[in-house]
């Protein structure tokens, strides 16, 4: 187990990487928290008012994309019914600052807002994104319309 000082530094680094105001490149070993950082970053973007359809989150594997979608959906769904004190604790851990009533209201509405958004959240693999782009612009990409991978 990591000493408290290492754990605190690890948590602070993750919180910094999850801050949408920061430009971050995350590279780390399996099991180190990359998926959590990405889910936290997407959640923070949503809390800041970013449209769900305005977010594109890319990863290398289908498993990672599915895991991110599951974690985000679980978190936002849980927030709709969580007791105020527990929600405030979750938001404080995510944001690293005092939580306002506005934060609480926004968090409670995110699940429905995400589900109702045209186009929804795009959490997908790099390959799926590139394939969709090529299918959308086949002439410019010089590929046959309706091509299959």
Describe the protein in words.
The chain is mainly alpha-helical and 149 residues long. 61% of the residues lie in helices and 5% in strands. The chain has a two-stranded parallel ribbon with strand order 1-2. Helix 2 crosses helix 3 (62-81) and helix 3 crosses helix 5. The longest helix is centred in the middle third of the chain and has 20 residues, at 62-81. It is globular and about 55 Å long.
| Beta-strand percentage range | 5-15%
Note the run of SSEs as H and E: HHEHHHEHH
Structural class: mainly alpha
Tertiary shape: globular
Strand elements, count: 2
Biggest sheet strand line-up: 1-2
- From the alpha carbons, calculate the radius of gyration and give it in angstroms: 18 Å
**Helix coverage percent of residues?**
55-70%
**How many strands, what sense, and barrel or not for the largest sheet?**
2 strands, parallel
